[in-house]
Amino acid sequence: MKLIFTYTIIAGIIAGVTGPIPGSSILLTLLELVMIIHLAKHFDYHLGLKDIFGIGSLIWAISTALKDLAVELFWTIWWLDFGLSQIFVASVFVFVLGIILRYYFNTFKKKA
Questions:
Q1: pTM of the entire structure?
Q2: CA 12, CA 99: separation in Å to the nearest integer?
Q3: How far apart are the first and last CA of the chain?
Q4: Torsional sign, CA 93, 98, 103, 108
């Protein structure tokens, strides 16, 4: 769990620092991939290159859709700062992804 919290904090920092920069979500996608690989190693789960690219594509698609949804949602709440919403969305997404992956890797062990 400590590992997931660490990546969650890093995601919030990246979102806060690079939020206004176009294309900065690529950094978050890379962070999420590193977290996936790190969690897989922690649970002795073997990920092939095909698995990593598939997961990366899926993460990018889901996070892009969630980012668009969050932008629309937070624009309706006019008093909420846009920078804070980016930090919140990035942190929550990485945390939830980490929890799901921990459950998956712990339940479905695929030894190297």
A1: 0.76
A2: 16
A3: 22
A4: positive
CA–CA gap between residue 80 and residue 66 (Å, rounded): 17
Largest CA distance in the chain: 50
- Burial degree of 2 (CB within 10 A; 0-12, 13-18, 19+): exposed
- DSSP H or E segment with residue 20: none
DSSP state at residue 111:
-
d(CA 43, CA 3): 12
Alpha helical stretches, state H, the chain = 2-18, 25-42, 49-76, 82-107
pLDDT tier at 111, thresholds 50, 70, 90? low
Would you tell me how many other CB atoms lie within 10 Å of the CB of residue 17? Answer: 13
In tens, the pLDDT along 7-51 reads 999 999 998 888 777 777 788 888 988 998 898 888 888 888 888
Residue 55 has pLDDT above 90, yes or no: no
Query: By the 8 A CB rule, do 31 and 7 touch?
Result: yes
